[in-house]
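Our collaborator T.R. sent over the components below with a one-line note: 'Predict the complex.' Nothing else. No constraints on interfaces, no templates requested, no preferences about which chain binds where. So this is a plain run: every listed entity goes in together, and whatever single assembly comes back becomes the starting point for the next discussion.
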Amino acid sequence: MDTQHLAAGRTADVRIAGLSKVYAGGVAAMADVDLTIASGEFVAVVGASGCGKSTLLRILAGFERPSAGVVEVGGTPVTGPGPDRGVVFQDYGLFPWLSVRENVAYGPARKKLPKAEVAAVTDRFIAAVGLTRFAGKYPAQLSGGMQQRVAIARVLANDPSLLLMDEPFGALDALTRADLQTELKRIHVDTRTTVVFVTHSIEEAVYLADRVVVMTGGASHGVPGSVRRIVPVDLADRDVTSPAFNAVKREIAELVHTVPAAA
Amino acid sequence: MTTTDVATVPVAAAAPTVPDAPRRRGRGRLRTVLLGLPVPVLFLVLWHLGRAQEWELPLGLRMGFLPYPADVAAGLVNYVAGTRDDAFSSLLWEDLPASALRVVSGFALATLIAVPLGVLMGRFRTANSLFDPMINLFRPIPATAWVPLVALLIGYGDQASIFLITLSAFFPIVLGTISGARQVPERLLEAARMLGTSGVGTLLRVVLPAAAPAIVNGMRVGLGLAWVILVLSETTGVPTGLGSTIFLARDVVQTDQIVVGMICIAVAGFLSDRLLTLFFRVLFRDRPLIK
Ligand SMILES: Nc1ncnc2c1ncn2[C@@H]1O[C@H](COP(=O)(O)OP(=O)(O)O)[C@@H](O)[C@H]1O
Ligand SMILES: [Mg+2]
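Returned assembly:
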C-alpha cells in the first residue's frame, strides 16, 4: 500500500477563539472555547458524551454556525462546508448508489479536473487504503471497516488541508479498528494534513495524537461544554503497553472522569 | 452425544415427509398458476351463459345486451388484423399510436413540471409553503369535473385531451417526489457539501438519486392514471384513439367493439408500465438505491 506522494500536502492551521454555541431551542452546547492547532498537527478530542465534541467538529466543518467567537482555518474564517475541510463520519456517509470508485472520484470530479487526472487520483487513493480489488463494489457490499476506508480515501482524494473525524472507528470491531488506526497514522505521516479526531477511546487518542484536548461539561450537566485541559503526548514511540503510555492515559482518564473544581 | 441425539429423533423421523425446499417452491408456483385459472374460466362461462339466456342481474344489468365472448375475440382479431373489412378493421394501428402519443405527451409534461417542483417543495420550506395550498386545493377535483370547463377553455381536440392527462398524472408524481425528497438522509447532504458540491448540485447529485424510488413510484401511479383518464380525455372530440373508437362503437351499437377497446386500453396501460419499469432498470442498471 503505497502512500508516498499521496497529496500535494496542503495543510492548514486552526484558530478558535471565544467560541460559543447555543442551538436553536436554547441548548448551550459550548462556551468560550479557545484552541489553536498548528499546521500538520494531529489533535484528538476526548470527553464525556454530550460535552460538545461533535459540535466543535461540525462548526469547523461549517455545518453549524458559531453563536459567538472566531473560527479560522488557514487564516480564513469558516463560513460553510467546503472541500478544503474533509469530514469522516462515524456512519461513513457514502453515497449508496455510487461504486467505491465513483465515491472516491466524487470530490475530484466536482473540481472539474480533466477526466484522466480524476481517474489517476481516484486509483491512487483507492490503492492507498487497500481497496483496489473492490473498486467496482457498492458500499452496501462492503464491511464497516472497508466502508470507512472508502470514506477516508474519498476525503483524501480532495486533498483537504484539514481532516475532521468524528468517532470514525467507533462502530468497528477491535481488530479492524487497530488496523485503521495504524493506517491513519501512516497516512498522516505521508500527507501531513492537520487532523482533528474526536474519539471516546482515550487509548486511541493517546496512540494517534500529538495533543489530546480534554473537554468537560455539556448541556446535560447544566453547564456548556468547554476545554478542560490540553495534554501533549510526548512519547517517542506509542507502545500501548509501555508504562509511559499508560501514565498519559491515566492522566487523561482522570481529567475526563472527574468534575473540575469550581473556579 | 447419544443422549442429545434422542431428542432430535422425532424431528429426523419427520423430515423425509417434508418435501425439500426447491421442489416445494416449484410446486408452490405451479399451484399459484393453477389456482389462477378457475375463476376467469368460470367468468367466461357465466358470461356466455348469461348472454345466451339473457339473464337480468341486480342494478338492471341486462346481459342480453352483451356480446358473446367469442364475438369479442373475433372483434379483437378484426381490430388488430382486419379480418372483417368494416369500420374497425386494423384500426388499432391508427388508434394506438394516437392514444399513446397523448398519454406520453401528457405524462411527460406532468413529469417535467412535477419532479422539479416536488424536489423544491420537499427540500425548501418556502417552496412548500408557497405551493402546498394550491396542490391541496386542486388535487381533490376529479378529472371528470374538469371536462366541461376544459371544453370551453381549450375547445375540442388533442390539446384538451393532453391537458386532462397532464392534470391527472401530475399529482401522484409531485406527491411521490415531495416525500422522496424529504426523506433524503441529512448525512448524505452533508457529505456532498463537504466534498464541494454546490446547492443546485446537491439537488441533482444527492436529492434526485436518493428520492428516485419514490419518484419512480409516483410516476408509475401517474402513468396508470394517464391511461385511466384517456377514454374520458378522448370524449373531447378527437377523431382517432382507443377511447374515441369506444364511443364510435357505442354510437353504432357494436358492443363487441366496445369491449375490444376496453381490453386494448388495459393491455396498453399494462405494457406501458412494464416499459417504464424497464426504462428505469436500464437507467439505474444495478445500482442500489435507498429503499
Ligand atoms: N442540532 C442540535 N440541536 C440542539 N441541540 C443539540 C444539537 N446537536 C447537539 N445538541 C446538544 O448539544 C450538546 C453537545 O452535543 P454534541 O456536540 O453532539 O456532544 P458530543 O459529541 O460530545 O457527545 C448535547 O447536549 C446535545 O444534546
Ligand atoms: Mg458526538
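Summary for T.R.: The beta strands of chain B are 56-57, 61-62.
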